[in-house]
Amino acid sequence: MKITQVICQVLRVGDTVAKTASCQDAVIVRVRTDDGLEGVGEADSMPEVVKAVIDSPFSNNVACGLRKLLIGENPLETERLWWKMHQGSVYYGRTSVVITAMAAIDMALWDLKGKYLQQPIHRLLGGKHHARIKAYASILFGRDGAQTAEIGRRWIDAGYRAVKFGWEPMGRDERLDIDLVRGARRGLGPDADLLIDAGCVWDARTALQRAHAFAESRIGWLEEPLRQADVDGYAWLRDRSPVPIAAGEGECGRESFRPLIDRKALDIYQVDISRCGFTDAAYIRARVEESAARLVNHCYTSPLTVAASLHWLSTCRDAFIFEDCVEDVPLRHELTHEKIQAVDGWMTVPDGPGLGVTIDEGFVKKYLVAESGRDAASARAAG
Question: Along the 383 residues of the chain, how does pLDDT read in single tens digits?
């Protein structure tokens, strides 16, 4: 079995708006073989830049587009292909967007492998410890504490027992920051889990002050209070904070996570499969589990990454909560025929082959804005 096509598709649903939500567009990768199998994956990244990384031609042995490295290869050899992509792009890659492009391909390769072997990905990763995982509704803050409280009540009424609020307008001033968190607690009531995502807005000392202020609202974690690359700052803050410190969603692969793990800089490591891929996420899982910290997923995109995250997180021994994006947008709910959302506050791990979800081709056709990687005959047949 050989790879014959690596198709890259960019989807955009209407006009994007100025908010920190990566479920407004998507980049989908489809890996096809000479015996008719297809695996699908996606990256949480800038879609057109990922497409360029995949589409680029050969420049030299260590600067090559990813498609060029994969055509003719056996798709079942996922770890070797990860290394081949890494080495073939090392002069312009190693971290950031190239790793996200590799992650989308890696997700597709694991989906294809699962379909070929008729096994769910969690079994190929070593087996699931959890058939279902408690979910938290992941949503943005309101404009102030009062509106945030209303949002919190909505998701408690929908059956969630945990909610995370994030990003804007946190960070404008101390009064508003505290008002937002107090409002969130009022909306959730005394018993639900409250998680706060600051959105990389403070220096370390301000973050420590906020951690102490937010502790009165009994938050489960304070996420990304510092800029993502501040490993020393996170280590300093974690040693002093009265609440757990979480981060990692923006890290791309093992090389990005390694400094955080080596420094024991976090209480909770947030791994996004659409930025790390299953192959590097297995390494990260092993390192974090031996460090006595905890693992969670990050996911704010389509059902492809939701399914991938469920497969991976279910294999983490101490998995305790799952990020469930509740943005009411078509890409989050309609890209696949299967609806992957919490029921009564719990996510169920898929057991079908591969990712266990199927693309709605009508949705793709409706919102497709760019595509590459298909031969002319295939494109005409599809069009």
Answer: 999 999 999 999 877 777 666 777 999 999 999 999 999 999 999 999 999 999 999 999 999 999 999 999 999 999 999 999 999 999 999 989 999 999 999 999 999 999 999 999 999 999 999 999 999 999 999 999 999 999 999 999 999 999 999 999 999 999 999 999 999 999 999 999 999 999 999 999 999 999 999 999 999 999 999 999 999 999 999 999 999 999 999 999 999 999 999 999 999 999 999 999 999 999 999 999 999 899 999 998 899 999 999 999 999 999 999 999 998 888 888 999 999 999 999 999 999 999 999 999 999 999 999 999 986 445 445 55
Instruction: Return the SS3 of 156.
Output: helix
The span from the CA of 122 to the CA of 128, in Å, is 6
- Give the integer Cα–Cα distance in Å for 233 and 227: 9
> For residues 345 and 364, what is the distance between their CA atoms, to the nearest angstrom?
29
User: Distance (Å, rounded) from C-alpha 16 to C-alpha 124?
Assistant: 37
Indicate the burial class of 350 (C-beta count within 10 angstroms; 0-12, 13-18, 19 or more): buried
Domains of the chain: residue spans and CATH: 3-118+360-373 (3.30.390.10), 123-348 (3.20.20.120)
Question: 31 — phi, psi (to 5°)?
Answer: -105, 125
**Strands 193-197, 219-223: pairing kind:** parallel
Would you say how long the chain is, in residues? 383
For the chain, the distance separating the N- and C-terminal CA atoms, rounded to the nearest angstrom, is 27
Angstrom distance (rounded) from CA 68 to CA 54 = 8
Pairing of strands 268-271, 294-297: parallel
Report yes or no: 274 and 103 within 8 Å, Cβ to Cβ.
yes
- The H-or-E segment that residue 80 falls in is helix 78-88
Q: What are phi and psi of 284, to 5 degrees?
A: -60, -45
The answer for residues whose C-beta is within 8 angstroms of residue 96's C-beta and 6 or more apart is 252
